[in-house]
Amino acid sequence: MRVLVISDTHIPITANKLPAVVIEEAKKSDVCIHAGDFVDASVFRELSKITKTYGVCGNMDNSDIRKELPEKQIIELGSIRAGLIHGRGSPATLMNYIDTEFKQELNMLNIIIFGHTHHPLDKEINGRVYFNSGSCTDRVFAPEPSYGILEIDGKNITRRIVKFE
Q1: Is the pLDDT of residue 104 over 90?
Q2: Number of neighbours of residue 52 by Cβ within 10 angstroms
Q3: Where are the domains of the chain?
Q4: N or C: which end of the chain has fewer CB within 10 A?
Q5: For the structural domain made of 2-163, what CATH number should be given?
């Protein structure tokens, strides 16, 4: 299973539309996961027309998105159980926030996908993967735009952060 992971698109604030490379990746993916801060619900609807799309609302999302999407969710991706959340607060306390939000479910999650920082992260802690794709549209708060690709085969997850111009 191929999974496209994006976050913090902030459309139409940081960009007018999703980058062409992200649309092409969505077409090649079985699933797209957006870790919040769409800003406009049209981004979720556009991705949903291309592939199965999961998303959560972020701190910058409007009321339309908040009505449509939860603040966190657990997704079954084949044999993998993924926690999805946007994030809140300072990058220094973000991991504690995430673990607290998933406290009840933490032991059954293989990977936690999140956003908020605009900076990519791929880190394994205590056998659990923490994956942030960065922002595919931000050129102000991130060194370069990026997205993530997960390849899931049984219980194996191959992870890749793709940076582009």
Answers
A1: yes
A2: 12
A3: 2-163
A4: C
A5: 3.60.21.10
Instruction: Say whether pLDDT at 143 is over 90.
Output: no
* For residues 14-31, average pLDDT: 96
Give the pair of three-digit tokens for residue 121: 């992260």
The pLDDT assigned to 150 comes to: 98
Name which of 113, 110, 78 is nearest 1 in CA terms.
Answer: 78
Beta bridge partners of 2: 151
* Calpha distance 39→12 (Å, rounded): 7
Check if the beta carbon of residue 102 is closer than 8 Å to that of residue 109: yes
Q: Is 134 left (phi over 0), alpha (psi -120 to 50) or beta?
A: left
Yes or no: say if 129 and 143 are a contact pair by the CB < 8 Å rule: no
Number of CB atoms found within 10 A of residue 54's CB: 21
| SS3 state of residue 95 | helix
Query: How do residues 126-142 score in pLDDT, each as one tens digit?
Result: 889 999 999 999 887 88
| Residue of 129, 143, 113 whose CA lies nearest to 7 | 113
Q: What is the pTM of this model?
A: 0.96
